[in-house]
Write a structure and sequence with these properties.
The complex is a heterodimer of chains A (396) and B (227).
Chain A: H1 9-22, H2 24-62, E1 66-71, H3 86-91, E2 96-104, E3 109-110, E4 124-128, H4 132-135, E5 140-143, E6 155-158, H5 160-166, E7 176-179, E8 182-190, E9 202-206, H6 207-214, E10 222-227, H7 232-243, E11 251-254, H8 256-299, H9 301-309, H10 314-350, H11 359-386, H12 389-394
Helix pairs in contact in A: 1-10, 2-8, 2-10, 2-11, 8-10, 8-11, 10-11
Chain B: E1 2-13, E2 19-30, E3 34-38, H1 45-52, E4 60-65, E5 68-69, H2 75-85, E6 86-90, H3 101-106, H4 116-129, H5 145-157, E7 163-167, H6 175-190, E8 195-198, H7 202-207, E9 210-215, E10 218-222
Parallel strand pairs in B: 3-8, 3-9, 6-7, 7-8
Antiparallel strand pairs in B: 1-2, 1-4, 4-5, 9-10
Helix pairs in contact in B: 4-5, 5-6
The chains are: A alpha+beta (396), B alpha/beta (227).
Chain lengths: 396, 227
């Protein structure tokens, strides 16, 4: 035979379109599964990407040039302590802009003197330097921070969560708290401090009053260090030896901004769970498409027989059904990508974030849908191709 | 020149016991002939047509289309034979309901790899040949049974095949419409088409120049050309 059966690629596309327009409602419904899967994939990557971008922007706004100094484990075992001189020593390092310490105070704090001793609400009392707020770049929600005057008197600044736990929303001396057996006036209430979250559940009092009234030790529990942004690494290198020259190995240095960034990245673990969910939805959508295509092959035996009679090869028949299945999934994928994009934009808008929908994840999700559709079409297409033409024509 | 030739062709469907649909049939249809295969149900008319159209392979003997033996051809090559040498007309029309008449007819050239615009031009001509120029853009659902069968005939003849095989072309139509289809087939034959019709319709067998009568899978009588 000189002349061979041929089917132009453009015609394969038209045949796929034709198959779907024959039963538009069924095509729509079977594409929904794929659309939901792709929408999930896009929304999960979009929302978590937007959230991460937002978090990192916030961390950057807080400054990545803050370090913390804490006492670690002593070699002999047990908790080491920082020397009382450490804050002053650290402040003397050239690029250090400010260094503020907090110290443990062995006292519990209550809303008033009638609260049972056990109900501490897990609020910690710290002595604090007057430059602490500036160093951690914290903000006050109400009132004023400790100053050189109030640090000598029974005045306290509440962390955001501590104030909420005690039910205090007034500052400037209008509220009092029962702290270590003494009344302390509430001078101020802090806004949440992302770089120093331990302050949120704390009550801060001046170091002088802590020592005189509550017999607190002078040794700092933690020192917050704000450095010249260009010299963070250099300062980090000398911080331990400066804080405790006698036992630098007992000193732990950390960068809270790094920790927060790491936490932002760690949400990826949670994200992968949701992505897996989206992938499962996509697969279920694929199974749905395979199902619909198997039914289509059964229903369209007559058409298959006709096409074979018109000169279609088995390959042409298989190509038609695979293309139809892939087109179905592609439509679902594009719809899902739009849906996921809108979901991301909507959620980001609600949270006042800027929406970040990575183009690569859009493309990958649509490509995945296309691949799932093509694979889903293989079995029905092979069944269609295997039909004997005479038998196919015999069916109504 | 012979358009179609069956040489001791037989078809047996496997099973226990095997069913013999066609015993050894020897038959030649010359170029330009118009012949009818008649016979009671189960006599093997459809099987003969399926063998002639390479939709099925004979289990014995040989089938030649335009002089080429097709028994040993691969499935892909048989598809090529159907695409270029054979036109089919069926009792059930087999129209694609979402396509207009012209596009249904154009699908007769789909598997020759001809561009869509050329296919449509040829389809318009073929539709005019069967008297349906005014129905080009109508869908099968908007046409009568007779018009649908004319459309199907246009689809069969669009590629100028060596032979047109029609299986009960008037089986789904009323008598008057069936006569119209018969008249159309006669016209096409007069214009040069080779046509083999399997039919129950006595009007057709009376009208065609040659009648091949089958019984129990064998040729009972053939009013074939004296030559």
């Amino acid at each position: 035979m000189n002349a061979r059966s041929r089917l132009r690629p453009a015609d394969v596309g038209s045949l796929a379109r034709l198959g779907l327009t024959g039963r538009p409602l069924r095509a729509l419904l079977s594409a929904v599964g794929i659309a939901l899967g792709v929408a999930t994939l896009v929304a999960v990557t979009g929302i978590s990407g937007s959230s991460r971008a937002q978090l990192i922007a916030e961390i950057d706004a807080l400054g990545t040039n803050m370090l913390t100094v804490t006492a670690g484990q002593a070699l002999s075992g047990g908790q080491a302590t920082l020397p009382a001189t450490a804050p002053a020593m650290v402040a003397r390092i050239g690029p250090v802009q400010s260094a503020a310490a907090i110290g443990d105070v062995a006292a519990n704090v209550y809303r008033n003197d009638r609260i049972p001793a056990a109900n501490t609400d897990a609020i910690t009392v710290y002595s604090a330097g007057t430059n602490l707020l500036r160093t951690v770049q914290g903000h006050l929600a109400r009132g004023t921070f400790l100053n050189r005057a109030t640090a000598r008197f029974p005045a306290a600044v509440l962390g955001a969560s501590a104030a909420a736990a005690m039910g205090i929303d007034q500052a400037g001396g209008r509220a009092q708290i029962w702290l270590g057996g003494h009344w302390f006036a509430v001078a101020g209430i802090m806004a949440p401090a992302p770089l120093a979250p331990e302050l949120d559940r704390a009550v801060l009092i001046g170091l002088p009053i802590a020592r005189s009234l509550l017999h607190a030790r002078a040794a700092p529990a933690e020192i917050y260090v704000r450095t010249d942004p260009a010299s963070v690494a250099a300062v980090e290198g000398v911080l331990a030896a400066t804080a405790d020259p006698a036992a630098p190995q007992n000193v732990t240095i950390s960068n809270p901004a790094d920790a927060l960034t790491a936490r932002a990245d760690a949400t990826a673990a949670f994200q992968s769970l949701l992505l897996a969910l989206g992938a499962v939805a996509l697969l279920v959508g694929g199974v749905g498409i395979a199902n619909v295509m198997v039914i289509a092959v059964l229903e369209r035996r007559g058409e298959i027989g006709l096409r074979r009679a018109l000169g279609a090869t088995r390959t042409h028949i298989a190509a038609q059904f695979i293309a139809e299945s892939a087109l179905l999934a592609l439509l679902g994928g594009v719809a899902g990508a739009l849906l996921g994009g809108f979901a991301t934009a909507g959620y980001a808008h609600l949270r006042h974030w800027s929406a970040v929908v990575p183009g690569t994840s859009l493309a990958a999700a649509v490509a995945a849908a296309l691949a799932v559709g093509a694979v889903a079409g293989v079995y029905p297409a092979l069944r269609a191709a295997r039909l004997s033409p005479a038998e196919a024509l015999r069916s109504p | 020149m012979t358009a179609l030739e069956l040489a001791a062709a037989g078809k047996e469907h496997p099973g226990s016991p095997p069913v013999t649909a066609l015993r050894s049939v020897t038959l030649a249809i010359g170029d330009g002939e118009f012949a009818a295969i008649v016979g009671p149900s189960g006599s093997g008319k459809s099987t003969l047509l399926a063998l002639a159209g390479t939709l099925e392979r004979p289990t014995s003997g040989e089938v030649r289309i335009g002089g080429t033996a097709v028994g040993h051809l691969a499935d892909r090559e048989l598809a090529s034979v159907r695409a270029y040498r054979i036109g089919f007309v069926f009792q059930q029309f087999f129209m694609v309901p979402t396509l207009s008449a012209v596009d249904n007819v154009a699908s007769g050239l789909l598997y020759r790899g001809i561009p869509a615009a050329q296919r449509r031009d040829a389809a318009a001509t073929a539709l005019a040949t069967v008297g349906l120029a005014h129905r080009m853009w109508h869908r099968p659902g908007e046409m009568s049974g007779g018009e649908r069968q004319r459309t199907a005939i246009a689809r069969a003849l669009i590629g100028r095949p060596a032979i047109i095989l029609a299986d009960e072309p008037t089986g789904s139509l009323d008598t008057a419409t069936g006569l119209g289809i018969l008249a159309l087939l006669s016209e096409l034959n007069a214009a040069g088409s080779t046509i083999l019709v399997a039919t129950h319709n006595p009007e057709i067998s009376r009208a065609v120049p040659r009648t091949i009568r089958l019984r129990d899978g064998a040729v009972e009588s053939d009013t074939g050309r004296a030559a």
